[in-house]
Design goal:
By secondary structure, the chain is α/β, with parallel strands linked by helices. Helix content is 38%, strand content 22%. α4 links the parallel β5 (79-84) and β6 (102-105).
Length: 132
């Protein structure tokens, strides 16, 4: 990990989960930026420039897959790790096809989150260089 502080966007409609993930991200020496919806995240994306996104799958209005589709329409997109409390049939596969770099089930331990962030090399990348 470089000495540069990296920003991790946390997109989850559950306030308690957002706060817990913010604490985890801070404990890993990253800067968390939290969003309560996919819409608010997408509106702020150009100003935030996160190096990685922790994206809840089950959200009202735009769900995680909808957000992934919006992100994949861009020339470049951050590495996205989809998180979910209910790993329904086909969700993981759909998210990975839509451009997710990783997929985690809640609850997420500090070690698991750290490994996932490092594995996706948290950084903006051209669409052609996605890991999956």
């Amino acid at each position: 990990m470089s000495g540069q502080q990296r920003t991790i966007a946390i997109v989850d409609d559950d306030e308690l989960v957002r706060r817990a993930l913010c604490r985890l991200v801070l404990s890993l020496s990253f800067t968390p930026v939290a969003f309560a919806s996919g819409e608010s995240f997408l509106k702020a994306l150009d100003q935030t420039s996160p190096s990685c996104v922790l994206l809840d799958f089950h959200m009202p209005s735009l769900n995680g897959l909808d957000v992934l589709h919006e992100l994949s329409a861009r020339q470049e997109m951050p590495a996205v790790i989809v998180i979910t409390g209910a790993d329904d049939n086909g969700v993981r596969e759909s998210c990975m096809r839509a451009g997710a770099a990783g997929f985690l089930n809640k609850p997420i331990s500090r070690d698991t989150l750290s490994s996932a962030i490092e594995a996706v090399e948290c950084g903006w990348r051209p669409r052609s260089k996605r890991l999956f």
